[in-house]
Design goal:
CATH topology: Hemopexin
Number of helices: 0
Shape: globular
Number of strands: 27
Distance between the termini: 26 Å
Structural class: mainly beta
Number of domains: 1
CATH class: Mainly Beta
Radius of gyration: 18 Å
Helix content: under 10%
Length: 259
C-alpha cells in the first residue's frame, strides 16, 4: 500500500502511518487487514484498552529503545562506535551493521521528513544515502543547530519542539518557520510518539493524547506501564515496544471485536 517513508494523510486502523521513536518516524500496521474482513472494531478508549507485556530478544537483550531507528527497509540500533546493529524482524535477532561517512552516532538523533533520513545533533547535520549506507552533509534554513530527538510529525507536517521554540518544516525548501500551538505550547518533541492511529506525549507520569484536528491535548490512561518516557518506545512495523535496559515491553491493543 505504502512504503515506510510515506505519510498517510487519512490514517485508519490497519493503514501505514508514521511512528516516532526518539526522532525517527517508522510505519506500523496496527491490525492486519486480513483480520478486519469480517469484523468491526470498537476503538473507544478505556483504561484497559492498551497493555504492555514482557518481550524477549536475541543477539542483544539489554538496550534502549531511544537508540532504535529505521531507513524504511530495516530496523537499526545505533549507540556510538561500540554498537551498530540491524534487526532480523522475523526472528527478533540483532547482528552487526557497517556504515560509511559517519560511524560514531546515536539513533536518538535520527529522523525523516518522509523522503530522506537525517541525523541532527547541534551543528552536525547529515543526510543518508540509503542504497549505499553513506552519510553526507545537509544544509537547512531557519533552523541550523538542532537535535533530531525533538522532531516529530502529526502525519501531515514535520515539527521541531524544544520548550518555547516551536517550528514547522517546509520539506520542499528545507526551511523551518515558527509554529503556534494551543493547549500545550511549551513542550519537548522527544516525548511525542504514535501507535499509528493517535499521537501521544509521554513524560514520566504526564501522559497525553492529541486531538490533531483541534490541536488539543488531553489525559491518557495506560495499563501495565503508566510511568514511562516516549524516547524508549519504538516499532518493528508490526508491534510497538518499550525498551529501557532490562525492562522490555510490547504494547497489546485489547480492541473489542464483534462480528
Amino acid at each position: 500500500k505504502q512504503d515506510a517513508l510515506t505519510f498517510d494523510d487519512t490514517p485508519t486502523i490497519g493503514s501505514d502511518n508514521p511512528v516516532t521513536s526518539g526522532g525517527i518516524y517508522t510505519a506500523i500496521n496496527s491490525i492486519p487487514l486480513s483480520k478486519l474482513k469480517s469484523v468491526s472494531v470498537d476503538v473507544s478508549l478505556s483504561p484497559q484498552f492498551f497493555d504492555f507485556v514482557d518481550k524477549d530478544w536475541s543477539g542483544m537483550t539489554g538496550f534502549s529503545g531511544s537508540r532504535i531507528w529505521t531507513d524504511g527497509n530495516n530496523i537499526y540500533y545505533s549507540d556510538g562506535p561500540p554498537q551498530q546493529k540491524v534487526l532480523d524482524v522475523a526472528t527478533g535477532t540483532w547482528s552487526n551493521k557497517a556504515w560509511s561517512g559517519m560511524t560514531d552516532f546515536f539513533g536518538s538523533y535520527i529522523w525523516t521528513d518522509g523522503n530522506n533520513i537525517y541525523y541532527s545533533v547541534g551543528a552536525t547535520q547529515k543526510v543518508l544515502d540509503v542504497a549505499t549506507s553513506t552519510w553526507s552533509n545537509k544544509t537547512w534554513s531557519g533552523l541550523t543547530d538542532f537535535s533530531g530527538s525533538r522532531i516529530w510529525t502529526d502525519g501531515t507536517n514535520i515539527y521541531y519542539s524544544n520548550g518555547s521554540t516551536q517550528k514547522v518544516l517546509n520539506i520542499a525548501t528545507s526551511t523551518w518557520s515558527d509554529k503556534t500551538w494551543s493547549g500545550m505550547t511549551n513542550f519537548d518533541g522527544s516525548f511525542i510518539w504514535t501507535d499509528g492511529t493517535n499521537i501521544y506525549y509521554s513524560e514520566s507520569t504526564t501522559q497525553k493524547v492529541l486531538d490533531v484536528a483541534t490541536g488539543t491535548w488531553s489525559n491518557k490512561i495506560w495499563s501495565g506501564l503508566t510511568n514511562f518516557y516516549a524516547p524508549y518506545i519504538w516499532t518493528d512495523g508490526n508491534n510497538i515496544y518499550h525498551s529501557a535496559s532490562s525492562e522490555q515491553k510490547v504494547l497489546i491493543t485489547n480492541k473489542k471485536i464483534r462480528r
